[in-house]
Amino acid sequence: MHGVWRHWAPPMERSKLATTAFAGAYLGVMLGLPVSAYLVTYIDWSAPFYFFGVSGIIWLLLWVYISAPSPITCKHISEDERQFITENVGRIATSQTTLTTIPWKRIFLSLPVWAIVVCNFCRSWTFFLMLGNQLTYMSDVLHLEIHNGGWISSLPHIVMTIVLLASGQIADYLRSTGKLSTTMVRKLFTVLGFSFEAAFLCGLAFVTQPVLAVTMLVLGVGLGGFNIAGFNVNHFDIAPRYAPILMGFSNGVGALAGISGLVSEHLTADGPAGWRTCFLLAMCIDLVGLITFVVFGSGELQDWAKEVEPQQSTEEIVRRLSSAIKRVSSIRGSSFFRRSYAKKDDQVSIADEFSRQSSERSMKEVKKSELSSIREADV
């Protein structure tokens, strides 16, 4: 999605547009968990695969028809909207890159980039842990029935969807009004997300009463959505040209957090004590992400992400200078000839005028002579 948003999202609207897009993912989880639980309980274990597979194909057809990679090629917006987006996004976010022009070394050595990568891994650890083990936790520890657990396990993602939409609006408001810098906004929302998540995970490790445990689970996962308006849209701030690359890199490392499922399976084999260890480990990982982003995170455009004019070879410079000299010489030559012709025309005009005036004087003298002759004859 970052590859699309870099063409579509003006700088002061990136938070709310990106968080709105991410909200769709959590909305899918919110609906997917209870629907899957229902289909497995009343139809068959394979029913969710067919249902969501067909749903994905239908959405793909709609996406291909409606979407466009950039405002320039979109057929579903007005000309005013197209002009507004292209002018505000600017070249620095939309300019094309190639494998040879991407500053790979400087990207991999950039501390703000690694701050995003570490946060993505830490956030993904808790996400995968809860996504894959909520139903098991509710069934084995809280002793809830699976079809009820499906609806309850969707509650955290309902809260997260609301938090996502609100946090994006607030983040852009703080930036656009100048109340906080982009760096402070990103760090603020990252701290909020990880702090809420870590605090409720810590409480969840020592609570077994169903209502209180579910409340902590819902608030911990849901309020963790503040993270999305923090580090998860930070790619656009530090390197809008390379936002898709940074997103792919950070998501790739974040996917490694999928091992949390294996770790939790091993730890929870010991019963409630294992779940306590599992939640405390997730809390510590969240704190690592929080500290890393506070220390190394940034909201400023990085030097290596700025657009630089390509360097020209000596031969290219000589060729361009020769071409420029030829054009100047041609223009000056044309101007010289035009001035010469103009002078000649002026000289011809002056000669004609002198000849005309001489003729007039001669005619007058002839007439005077004739009049004098007539008068003498009369006398």
TrEMBL record:
<feature type="transmembrane region" description="Helical">
    <location>
        <begin position="274"/>
        <end position="296"/>
    </location>
</feature>
<dbReference type="InterPro" id="IPR036259">
    <property type="entry name" value="MFS_trans_sf"/>
</dbReference>
<feature type="transmembrane region" description="Helical">
    <location>
        <begin position="21"/>
        <end position="43"/>
    </location>
</feature>
<keyword id="KW-0472">Membrane</keyword>
<dbReference type="InterPro" id="IPR050382">
    <property type="entry name" value="MFS_Na/Anion_cotransporter"/>
</dbReference>
<feature type="transmembrane region" description="Helical">
    <location>
        <begin position="49"/>
        <end position="68"/>
    </location>
</feature>
<dbReference type="GO" id="GO:0016020">
    <property type="term" value="C:membrane"/>
</dbReference>
<feature type="transmembrane region" description="Helical">
    <location>
        <begin position="150"/>
        <end position="167"/>
    </location>
</feature>
<feature type="transmembrane region" description="Helical">
    <location>
        <begin position="188"/>
        <end position="206"/>
    </location>
</feature>
<dbReference type="Pfam" id="PF07690">
    <property type="entry name" value="MFS_1"/>
</dbReference>
<dbReference type="InterPro" id="IPR011701">
    <property type="entry name" value="MFS"/>
</dbReference>
<keyword id="KW-1133">Transmembrane helix</keyword>
<protein>
    <submittedName>
        <fullName>Uncharacterized protein</fullName>
    </submittedName>
</protein>
<feature type="transmembrane region" description="Helical">
    <location>
        <begin position="212"/>
        <end position="230"/>
    </location>
</feature>
<feature type="transmembrane region" description="Helical">
    <location>
        <begin position="107"/>
        <end position="130"/>
    </location>
</feature>
<feature type="transmembrane region" description="Helical">
    <location>
        <begin position="242"/>
        <end position="262"/>
    </location>
</feature>
<keyword id="KW-0812">Transmembrane</keyword>
